[in-house]
Amino acid sequence: MARKIIYETSGSERLIMEYLWKEETEKSFVEIMSFLNNEAGKDWKKQTVNTFLKRLTDKGLIAIQQRGRSRVYCAALTADEYEQGCAKKILDDYYNGSINAFLSALTGGGKIDKQFADELRKLVD
User: Fold this and answer.
1) Angle between helices 99-107 and 79-95 (to 10 degrees)
2) 25, 44, 71, 73 — which has fewest CB within 10 A?
C-alpha cells in the first residue's frame, strides 16, 4: 500500500527539501547540517535538524537509507510532484476538488480574457 504523503511544510522543512531537490542526490546528516548552518545561515543544533528530518520522514517527503553505519537522506518525490500534490490539496480542501469552482474564484466569477483561455486550452490538450 502506498504511503500517504502530507503536502504541508514549514519554512524550515521547505529549506531542507529545496536543498535535497537542488542537490539531486542523497545527503548525510553532516552534509545537511553543514548546508543549514554554513550556507543557509542557520545556527541549528543537531537535535533541531533531527526533528525536522523526522517530521519530513513522517510526512513521506524524504526517505532514509542505511549506508553501513550511517544514514543518508533523499527526497522521496521530485519538486514538481510536491507542487502538484500541494495544488491538488488546495483544490480538494477549498474547492471540493472542482476546477470550475477554483477558476470561478480565481477570476472573481467574471469572464476570462482570450490569452488566459488559450493557456487553459493548451493545458487541457
Assistant:
1) 90
2) 25
Reading the block at residue 120, the C-alpha cell is 487553459
For the entire predicted model, the pTM comes to 0.83
What is the residue-averaged pLDDT of the chain?
A: 92
- The class (CATH top level) of 11-75 is mainly alpha
Name the grid cell of 19: 536543498
The domain spans of the chain are 11-75, 79-124
CA distances, 73 to each of 9, 46, 80, 114, 122 (Å) = 17, 15, 19, 46, 37
Residue bearing cell 477554483:
102
How far apart CA 83 and CA 86 sit, in angstroms, is 5
- CA–CA separation, 16 and 12 (whole Å): 7
Which secondary structure element, helix H or strand E, spans residue 74, and what is its range? strand 70-75
Residues of the chain predicted below pLDDT 50: none
Q: For 60, list phi and psi in degrees, rounded to 5.
A: 80, 15
> Contact, 76 vs 61, CB < 8 A?
yes
